[in-house]
Amino acid sequence: MKAVHKGATDGYGNEQTGRSESDMNNIYLVSDIHGQYQALRTALDRASFSPERQDRLYVIGDMIDRGPESKEVLEFLLNLRQAYPSQVFLSKGNHEQMFQDWLRRAIDPDLYLRLNGGDATVRSFLGQHPMRRAFLGGVPSAETQEAAREEILARYPALLATLDALPLALELPGDSGTGTEPALLVHAGIRPGLPLSRQRPEDLLWIREPFYNHYQGETLIVFGHTPVNRLPGYAGQGPWRSGKMIGIDGGAASIEGGILLVSWPSLQYIYVPIREVRSSPQIRVT
Hints:
The protein contains ten helices and eleven strands.
């Protein structure tokens, strides 16, 4: 399994609707952006997120698929990480893994393109190329998919290596000065009863009920993958918390959901509904 990336923590996070100029070193967590670039940027703007002022951002997978601007989300976050490598941390979700597998011809195209929203990511990376039309409303022929792969990898030659290099988990160390306990950030969760070194990548990327229904470990786990409104006993606002588990997937994979940007360790949050930043689809009649 890929090594866990270790970050650092200091500071408590910002007020729910912004902060003063004197606030420093805020830490924000987000997961499951799913190509919703405008909602992500709106949430960061409302938080006054500023890596120049040493704010940190941890993204717990699923930056792409389903939403209309997967390329824009991925490029924005990768460029931000390149500019501020000590402030911006990205990890892999199951959707990054599926995109990587599709580019390598290692996944059922129907599973990725049709059932998991990969068609939106391919269209996003193809831009205005005429081939993008083939990925609307169905699974294109094998020949068209191959041509699309070649086009995408020619345009973005570092893409596969970048996806390969995303870690499967991130660590937030504790802070004795503030009493903040350490946390493990992982996209889907972990298999209860197994140390991290023995976890399968498939569990870290895909697990659901066996984790959040049965985990009783001592390590605090922050995860995405399952929208908070689908987690047991969710009260309907902000992150979900149960024992040593914190869920932060705001459901941006659906037009009914949104981006949930969570301040750490206060768990104050900013929620941006997708409907707030996306207008109704325009229908062109010819």
